[in-house]
Structures are given as structure tokens and as C-alpha cells.
Amino acid sequence: MREYYTITELTREFDVSTRTLRFYEDEGLVQPVRRGRTRLFRPSDRHLIRQIMRGKRLGFSINEILALATLATGSCWVAWKLRKRRLGGEPDRKPLWVSFGAELFVVVALMFTCRVAVADWPKVPSGSMEPTLRVGDYLLVNHLAYGPRLPFTNTAIEFGQPQRGDVVVFRYPVDVSEFYVKRLVGLPGDVVRFDRGAISVNDAPFDAQVVSEGIGANVPPEDRGQWLIDETSAGSSRTIKVNPFVMGRLAPSGMGASCRTESATAWSCTVPPGQYLMMGDNRDNSSDSRVWGFLPHGQVYGKAVRVLFNLHDMSRTWTAL
Q1: Average pLDDT value for residue range 250-256
Q2: Following DSSP, what letter does each residue of 6-53 receive, concatenated?
Q3: Beta pairing partners, 260
Q4: DSSP readout, 269-319?
């Protein structure tokens, strides 16, 4: 086995950029050895990068916590049933492990089953998907659209496949204990072109019209000075937000050699097999595939279908996505 790998070898092997590997280093995921100006990666670093790129790194999120809680309370429930049978009835005083364990089993099991197999309700923490999603929105996430994923292994029982234009909830590839929500704009094999905030897929003409320049009394504070653009690509339509002073000047450095930069505001990428190109609708204020790379299929979690409610704006209740 080799002792070290260079950064050039890893960028070529995993089709990622140097910036992405340095981001992993800054986050403490890999710890290369420095020899002068050269970074040398250990085999363990190479293995971890492979796991991240293949979408098989294990995460520990609320689903894994609920799985452990279900196992613990279920064990208490079985032990309590066996004890009552042995005693011939229920004792006068219940132990604490019954009150805080066995009697909560059904509730915890229902919560776990609902979150993993049916639906979920995460809260939107940032404005990266504005104007489609607003900060504070609670989303209805349909797991049956693609199929539930088992905790710890992230193994999918697949019912369907993500489609272009879907608002997808997924495990953040850099830290899979976190969940992100972005729009899927490119399927495996698609050629996605980007120009000043708008996209087109597979050589289709750009179809984008400015509908608001962020001026007026009724414009929300977060949209002032921003352009809202109606965009249609690959048969799906949405409204995106673009900063007229930036106009897409975020280089697709996270997607490595799969992309070709045409100008400061234009580029094109070919989506690799088994991965997706994800972008926020707030095109100039979103950490998405342009930053951390393509999304492996194994990290897809569910499809966001509606806004359940927003405590700061109840008019958004039950808004379809």
C-alpha cells in the first residue's frame, strides 16, 4: 500500500477540485501532511474522500437518534411485558425505566416511522432558496416520492427517482449529519449551461424573463435590490433571485474537471453518472454544487412538496412547491 497521495492524484481520481479538497481540510475531514508547499494525503484520507464522493459516509442526525430511542424504549417495553407476566400482574409501583421507557415506546416508534418512511417537516434556516422558500418555512417532505432511507446505512428502498426541477432535501455531502434543501437542475449525463444566473439543459435555449427589479413598497426586505426572474428549463418553471451586481460570478470550482468556464458569469458542466447538480434559487447567495460538488444519489433524502406554515408569515401556509 502506498504511503501518500498527492493532491493532483486525488483531484483526478475523484473528479473534484483542489478547492474542494482544501475545504475538506479546513473542516477537519482530512489531515494531509505538509512538506514545504506540498500536501500529501494518507490512504485513510483517500478512503474518506471516496466515501464522501460515493455518498456512503454514515451520518448521525435526528433520524439516527430516533432509531436508537426506538430500540431503547422497545427493549424496555418488552422487558416490562415479560416482568408483568412473571409477576402475574402489574406491581403497585412502576420503575422509572417503565415511565420513561416502555410507556413512550409507541410514541417514539410512530415518530421514527413517520420521519423515515412517510414524511418529515424540517425548518428552512437560510435564504439560499429564496424566493421559493423563505427563512422560517416548515416544509412537508415526502419520503415516498423517492423511497425511505434506512438510518445509519442510508440504504434506500427506492420507489422513484428525482427529476429535474424537484426541490430536494438531502444529506450535505461534506457533513452528512446535516440536511440541505436545493433544486435539482441536472440529472446524470445532462449538460447544464449557466449564464448570468440562469440555466439551460442539454443545449436548449435560455428562457428567463425579469419580473421584478426589487423596487417598490410591497417588495419584501430580503428582495430589495434583487432581480426576480421567471426561468424555464427542461420542462420545469420557477422564479429565481439574482443580484444584479453579481450576476452569477460564483465559479463552479466544486465540480472539478466536469465543468468548463466560458466567462466570469458563464460556464457549462456535464453531470457524472450517479450524481446530480443542485442549485439554490437564490443564485448569488447559495452554497450548492458550485461550492461542494455534485450530489451523490445515495444522499437524497426526500422531496419537498409544500410549505406547511411559517410563524412569521402565515399566508405561506400550505404553499405548493
Answers
A1: 83
A2: EHHHHHHHHT--HHHHHHHHHTTS--PEEETTEEEE-HHHHHHHHHHH
A3: 268
A4: EEPPTTEEEEE-SBTTS--SHHHH-PEEGGGEEEEEEEEEE-TT-GGGTTE
Q: Which helix (H) or strand (E) holds 194?
A: strand 191-195
Query: How many angstroms separate the CA atoms of 32 and 284, rounded?
Result: 32
Going from the C-alpha of 21 to that of each of 3, 5, 30, 46, the distances in angstroms are 18, 13, 8, 10
User: What average pLDDT does this structure show over 221-232?
Assistant: 96
Q: Of 156, 267, 283, 161, which Cα lies nearest the Cα of 231?
A: 283
Closest listed residue to residue 115, CA positions, set 48, 77, 159, 65: 65
What is the pTM assigned to this prediction?
0.78
* Owner of C-alpha cell 460570478: 249
Q: Which residues lie across from 212 on neighbouring strands? A: 228
Q: Count how many Cα atoms sit within 13 Å of the Cα of residue 165 in the half-sphere of its side chain.
A: 12
Question: Among 286, 284, 252, which residue's Cα sits nearest to residue 268?
Answer: 252
Rounded CA separation 51/15 (Å): 14
Short-list 194, 272, 271, CA closest to 233: 194
Who wins on pLDDT, 208 or 121?
208
The catalytic site residues sit at 128, 182
What's the whole-number average pLDDT of the chain? Answer: 88
